[in-house]
Design brief:
alpha/beta, nicotinate phosphoribosyltransferase, TIM Barrel, 2 domains, 17 helices, globular, glycosyltransferase activity, transferase, EC 6.3.4.21
């Protein structure tokens, strides 16, 4: 059977069509609204996330179309011909404001803000979340792995465990943005300029059954490419056969050992023994690579045990974010245009986490200390509010525990939201996918130095202030009070 080709146009939830039809029948389908993408809780018991997938969302919006095949399928679901014909003209004609790819973001902050007709913003909901949720999740996981490695190169090798081809490619990219040094995924390398690297599998050793001869053939192949070979040691026994055979082949051929790779067993013990034997044999510059179900916690523990590991190969636990399968990002209505002005909307819940911030399209700004260079806090503001003046003290307060107040002084202000799409057209200069990816990676590296280490640590990280401006906070309280009186 020939595999079907998915339609980008139909990557939407069926209920979107049901709601669009209701708006259309009521003549409300072109009402302009504001919708925001955000997450309520940071993943992996952390405080922050790395926003990734933003540029892909912009590309999706500017290319949104329904093909004849798409329309035929929608008609088969029972929608009337007039509504199906109306959908023929579906395009995204609105605006998209978002944080720049690779930005550190926090719970409740709008990663993406869309402004446009309700029918358009309804249809694109599922696909936007489908892009941003997993890529942001994997980027955040990869960032944690890279942090645990403390500057050692991390190799991403999760293609075979990723949930499908597209996921493997974009998750490799997300990992690279987060700081991973290279990928095993050739297509991610081709599309996004991620360095592609690899060693060899156990099958190369097992094919002939003679480990030493297999290592010799491998070394000859690598030397012809001008490379010092990396030997995978644990096919039979890392210390009793793998390492002695690798050293013997290198000595006989008069070549360097680039690295040895340990893929199983007690990695702390094995790496220490390998380092000792390699050094004694004169291969002091040979690196040790570890792989095999690694994550940030295993790497951190190996670091604490002073395992002399130089590089880390991480696959499953990073590329599928094994300990948290979903980010939980949501897409909520914040405002509706009425008589040329924005009328705020709020979602109320018994769970305080699920109460949204009304109004929009909001501003999201980040304060940075002029003295230390560190980021101090983020602030959500209504669209018409003036920015804080850097030369004047500015008071912020916790929106829940309002007695917790901080007076900021001597700061700069960064506006985090950039216009990606205006009137359905791309608003930013054209860049190649590799250029966008490289810029996002550089941004992560810069932010790594600008956020306090306590906020970035793996367990029990410190809080980072994300506050509401006083006008926004008052609006929210007024709307909650009004709801409570009904």
């Amino acid at each position: 059977m020939r595999s079907p080709t998915p339609s980008e146009g139909l990557l939407a939830d069926e209920y979107a069509l049901e709601m669009m039809r209701a708006y259309w029948l009521a003549g409300q389908h072109r009402r302009r609204v504001v919708k925001e993408v955000f997450f309520r809780k940071a993943p992996f018991r952390g405080r922050l996330a790395l926003a990734v997938g933003i540029n892909q969302v912009a590309e999706y919006l500017t290319q949104l179309r329904l093909s004849e095949e798409d329309l035929e399928y929608i008609a088969s679901l029972g929608f009337e011909p007039e509504f199906v014909e109306h959908l023929r003209g579906l395009r995204f004609t609105g605006d998209m404001h978002a944080v720049t790819e690779g930005t550190f973001v926090f719970p409740g902050e709008p990663i993406i803000t869309l402004v446009g007709p309700i029918e358009e913003l309804t249809y694109v909901e599922a696909r936007i979340l489908n892009i941003v949720n997993p890529q942001t999740l994997v980027a955040t996981k990869a960032f944690r792995v890279v942090e645990a490695a403390q500057g050692d190169p991390v190799l991403e090798m999760g293609l075979r465990r990723a949930q499908g081809g597209d996921a493997s490619i974009y998750h490799s990219r997300a990992s690279y943005i987060a700081g991973v040094a290279a990928t095993s995924n050739l297509e991610a390398g081709r599309l996004f300029g991620v360095p592609a690297r690899g060693t060899h599998a156990h099958a190369l050793v097992m094919l002939g059954g003679d480990e030493k001869e297999a290592f010799r053939l491998w070394a000859q192949s690598q030397v012809k490419l001008g490379r010092a070979p990396t030997f995978l040691l644990d096919t039979y026994d890392s210390l009793r056969s793998g390492l002695p055979n690798a050293i013997a082949v290198a000595q006989e051929m008069g070549i360097r050992i680039g690295a040895v790779r340990l893929d199983s067993g007690d990695l702390a013990y094995l790496s220490k023994k390998c380092r000792q034997v390699l050094d004694d044999a004169g291969f002091k510059d040979a690196k040790i690579i570890a792989s095999g179900d690694l994550d940030e916690y295993v790497i951190r523990d190996l670091k604490l045990q002073k395992a002399p590991i130089d590089m880390w190969g991480v696959g499953t636990n990073m590329v599928v974010a094994a300990d948290q399968p979903a980010l939980g990002g949501v897409y909520k209505l914040a405002a509706v245009e009425e008589n040329g002005t924005w009328s705020p909307r709020i979602k109320v819940s018994e769970n305080p986490e699920k109460v949204t911030h009304p109004g929009g399209p909001k501003q999201l700004i980040r304060f940075r200390s002029r003295e230390t260079g560190y980021y101090l806090a983020d602030l959500l503001m209504l669209p018409d509010e003036p920015l804080p003046k850097p030369d004047e003290p500015f008071l912020i307060f916790d929106p829940v525990h309002t007695w917790k107040r901080t007076c900021l002084r001597n700061f700069t202000v960064e506006n985090l939201l950039v216009t990606y799409v205006r009137g359905g057209k791309r608003a930013l200069p054209e860049q190649s996918p590799a250029e966008v990816t490289a810029a996002a990676r550089a941004r992560v590296n810069t932010q790594r130095e600008r956020f306090y280490e306590e906020i970035q640590r793996l367990t029990n990280p410190a809080d980072y202030k994300v506050d509401l401006s006083e006008p926004l906070w008052k609006l929210k309280m007024q709307m909650l009070d009004a709801r409570g009186r009904q």
